[in-house]
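Batch manifest, entry 17 of 40.
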Amino acid sequence: MDSNDPVDSAELAHVRSYWANMWPNSPIYTFLLKDVELLAASHGKVLAKLKVQPAHMNSKGTLHGTVSACITDGFGGLAIASTGVKNTGLSTDIHTTYVSTARVGDMIIIEATASKVGRSLAFTNVEIRHEGGAVIATGTHTKYVKV
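Output type: structure tokens
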């Protein structure tokens, strides 16, 4: 999602509402992602940012892989939500590839895309990158949405 992509305020409002209802009911999202700022949404796409905090670090002082996996999980669902569905389904497969890392104070950008939302399955891609553009991690997330 870049400045050329259309941003739909109704879709952003729907995603914000979905997020506001989801994260308080999921302790891992509350702990790791409560400070996420949702920036934009259009059909099948969500853009957000997060300032890396000490709770996001591993024992080496860099972004813990669990945080990237949690972002892939949560934002895959938000990309599905941006298509207007009320139920974003259950995870059937999730994969995260770690390319680089981040440190406390870094601002990371999260871009999630629902590449297909079908009758039974939805497929998403998530990219986590530094504000300057360097990729930190990429993820794919498949969800069973016929529930």
